[in-house]
Amino acid sequence: MDKKQTFFQRKNIEISARRYGIDALGAMAQGLFCSLLIGTIIKTLGGQLGIQYLTDIGTYAMAVSGPAMAVAIGYALKADPMVLYSLAAVGWAANAEGGAGGPLAVLIIAIVAAECGKMVSKETKIDILVTPGVTILIGVALAKLIAPPIGQVASAFGLIIDNATKLQPFWMGIAVSVLVGIALTLPISSAAICSVLGLTGLAGGAAVAGCCAQMVGFAVMSFKENRWGGLVSQGLGTSMLQMPNIVRNPRIWIPATLASAITGPIATCVFGLQMNGAPINSGMGTCGLCGPIGVWTGWLAPSEEAVARGAVALAPGAFDWLGMALICFILPAILSWIFCEALRKIGWIKEGDLVLPR
Q: Are residues 250 and 334 in the same domain?
């Protein structure tokens, strides 16, 4: 056992929930953002502006989402360069074989391939052959073997959530909004979770509501302490910045979470807000305005995942735009501020509780 632990330590292999469930998952979301998500935005802008050059750029970026995710995961796992570069082929294969559940397949398979590659890296005199060979052979073999069923399971689970939201829009609106919003603020990736589940439609709209409630909520209710810098860093960056404060005083999480419990069912029951863009947008909230942009792109050109579940392009009316503005910006700001002020008055939130760490 000691030899095994020593070997793993020497190879920087850490089998833990944090390394795989936080570091790797968060990195995967960044890789997805820097390929599929930004590519979708650029392609949509190109289509709307009639600029073919932008459309082509967006298409190229979207096409390499698998390799981008796998390389990002390898980087988070501190893979050696030869392993890292080899993961591009693994990511492409896993994403292609995984279908709608491609991101989940990439996450699982890239982790296994990266750790196997790290085990043999620099252990032989023909490292240039052994390391990429082991990484790619194991990764692509796993992609052929387990990626299709992984994709089917992820797609089926996402479909269950989507259908449940359609059948019970009020209760599922609350559940999805609150849970995905909480995931966004926790040191895990709500974007990756939504992408893995292919969360679109009404469920995607509820997820957008919950994420926006967290980000806008914390940005507005902490304005007194953090001023404009805090407003921008939390409202357009991430509410995860408040995690150290939440650990010290969990009650500061109440206002934004209550806001998400209200905006979620309003999104599903009143406005029928659907997020039919790339599923990753469902878990992005107002980070770079990706949540609202996903709603907008879903109106004009639904993603493949959304089309598979019956989504069609539409011309948004005033009611649609009003719904998006209220759900993504106005209601989270007002509700979180009201709840926060109430908790300040009873002493649950005190001066300085919301100051961002520097």
A: yes
What count of other Cβ atoms lies within 10 Å of the Cβ of residue 308?
A: 15
Q: Please name the residues in contact with 44: beta carbons below 8 A apart, sequence gap of 6 or more.
A: 58, 296, 297, 300, 301
Q: What angle do CA 255, 261, 262 make, to 5 degrees?
A: 95
pLDDT less than 70: residues of the chain? 1, 100, 187-188
Q: For the segment 257-300, what is each residue's pLDDT rounded down to a tens digit?
A: 999 999 999 999 999 999 999 898 899 899 878 899 999 999 99
Residue 199 tokens, joined? 């969360």
DSSP 8-state class, residue 24 = I
Upper half-sphere CA count for residue 24 (Cβ side, 13 Å): 28
pLDDT at 47: 79
For residues 148 and 192, membership in a common domain is answered with no
218 and 331 part of one domain: yes
Residue 100's pLDDT is 67
Residues 88 and 235 in one domain: no
In order, the DSSP letters of 302-317 are: --HHHHHTT-------
